[in-house]
Automatic annotation (TrEMBL):
Pfam families: V-set. It comes from the Eukaryota. Residues 9-126, 130-233 form the Ig-like domain. It comes from Coilia grayii (Gray's grenadier anchovy). Coiled coil: none annotated. This is Ig-like domain-containing protein. SMART domains: IGv.
Amino acid sequence: MEHTGAMSPTSSSTQTCLLLLLLLLTWVDCNIDHTQPSSVTIRPGEALRVTCKVTGASITDSSYWATAWIRQPAGQALEWINTIFYNENKQERNSLKNKFSVSRDTSSNTITLQGQNMQHEDSAVYYWVESLEHTQPSSVAIRPRENLQITCKVSGMLITSSSYYRTAWIRQQAGQALEWINAIDYDGEEHHSDKLKNKFSISRDTSSNTVTLQGQNLQAEDTAVYYCARDTL
């Protein structure tokens, strides 16, 4: 994925004490109002609070399903932090649950990530991820060497709109980090993981406003949770 930001040093004498978090809160399925800037500088040991306001859907609606926070430290794999569902059930990564928490405010339709005792190693791009409407069941069983096809229907914006930007597929195998598979831009340009480009392809249908992931010769090691996510400008 392309990111419109980079870590930059500061000329302040307290440079070594500052932590720059690039909060490019993308990969979402609705319009998002950010309640703080896209980058935040805090001192080690301080707390972090990031809130996103959801428009176009109610966070208590079962069709909204869930909101997740993930992050990507520079040069490292994507890392899932936590998830909150429409019914307020939560899932948390064991290694991070003592540092991060997630909450919501139904009156303002907002989702908040809170972090405590932040350190230099927590410098990362933090993503806010919302589930999409799937046009097939949420789980699919196939035999080894068979093909996979998963389609997501996008609502609230045309996939050909320049403000829509990009649809991406990512997956998470049990006990492993999130892994980016591929993406397709609003203008139809495709992007693929070098590792997975011979196994997975991506396509879209502008008449139905859907984006489809196709996989061939799937094996047991391809068992995973597959996410369809939208990247907005």
